[in-house]
Model the fold of this input.
Amino acid sequence: MGRPSLSEFFQGLAARRRHEAFAGSLAGATPWVRTTERAAAERYEVQTSYVRFDQRFNMMRQGLWNPRWAHLPKMRAENQARLVRAGKQGYSQLDWAFYSAATAIGRVTGMDINVPNRGSNGWGSLGARPLEGAKRWSGDPAANARAIRQVARMFGAGDVGITLLDRRWVYSHWFDPETRQSYPIRFSDEPGYEGIAEPTQLEDRTQVIPASMKYAVVMILPMDRRGVGTAPTLTQQATTQVTYSAIDRLILSVAEFIRGLGYNAIPSANCTALNIPLAIDAGLGELGRNAKLIHPLWGPMCRICKVITDLPLTTDSPIETGATTFCETCGKCARACPSRAIPQGPRSHQPVGEFNSAGVKMWQVDHGACAEYWAKVGTNCGLCLVACPFNKSAHWSHAVAKFAIARMPAINPLMVSVDDLLGYGEPDPRGFWVLGNP
Ligand code: SF4
Ligand code: SF4
Done:
């Protein structure tokens, strides 16, 4: 074979770059990002006293069992209805219809993002299995990882990272809204559960994850910036729900793909394990002051889901973007938070309530105060997403700013001032319906 011409050489280079951009993690394509060996537990100084979190203390579950918070779900629904009837900006008939549409898929699938082994979070195959008589799939870990990324993107993932499952991030117990109690989550290498080779829910509602399921495929869905930018309105909540509808399809489809190859898969939106540390371990961002993942491209304006599997996969390294360091100077989300739920001060290991994981050095957000504000405005607020300077378009100037933040933390105070001066971080409740999408 002769040497390629110059034009063939550049065509080949372009094709390869396109392939890599699609097959690899988006974060890997962001020039300001550096990889690190320091996973979430090390970076956020998890203490030896740390114990796995019981899902019933998650603030989204507390209203179902804790008398302290039991009034919140009803109050939230009543205030939402009152504001829609009054036609308040961001709670118009358009917003109501938008929200109804955004929740429709979940009503069909029976999905509740917080309930494991139900709806699209289901642990059993919906029909996918290897074809009888066909040769068993034998991809190597790197080929499997490429295929998973490809399939995840086909079903709507904006970014994909793969990590070994750190069991510290798996809930100690899952919360069942039917019985309003929580039940243990165990692994098959624990005494009494040996020999369980498939994800299983026992008669006593204990859930067992096979020890072989040691990988987590973590996926990111960016949210619509203009929709979230209307916070704290029903438009914002509907925009959040659009992303959850996409997660519904995404996790179900990726899990079925894995089962079709003959492996186990546990699809999971917000249940079974904590999303943020898994996403950090999978190289998808850092932890912010607002207790959200700060993704290199979309900041906290994104949602996370995952599929736990035993399909052998190569894993990604965690990344450093400078976000957590930037948060130490910034504090815009704390200033914007109407309930003062986000602390202004430094990170701490000390929880402010039972809704925090104890023993992790982070900004301890008062999720109780946050939930009370949600009930007041009848939506899931989102002002701390809007305030964040990491929420910017993909314009080159923002990439330059992120590059500078990652490399020169000394300029962080200046960057915060410039962000304020340019008027970023302010919600615009008119924006979504009047201006359309950027
Ligand atoms: S969602 Fe709203 S109330 Fe809750 S922490 Fe964010 S800004 Fe504060
Ligand atoms: S607003 Fe500032 S402090 Fe809050 S998460 Fe974003 S960068 Fe961090």
Remarks:
- Residues 288-290, 326-327, 330-333, 387-390 surround iron/sulfur cluster (ligand 2) (CB under 6 Å).
- The mean pLDDT is 93.
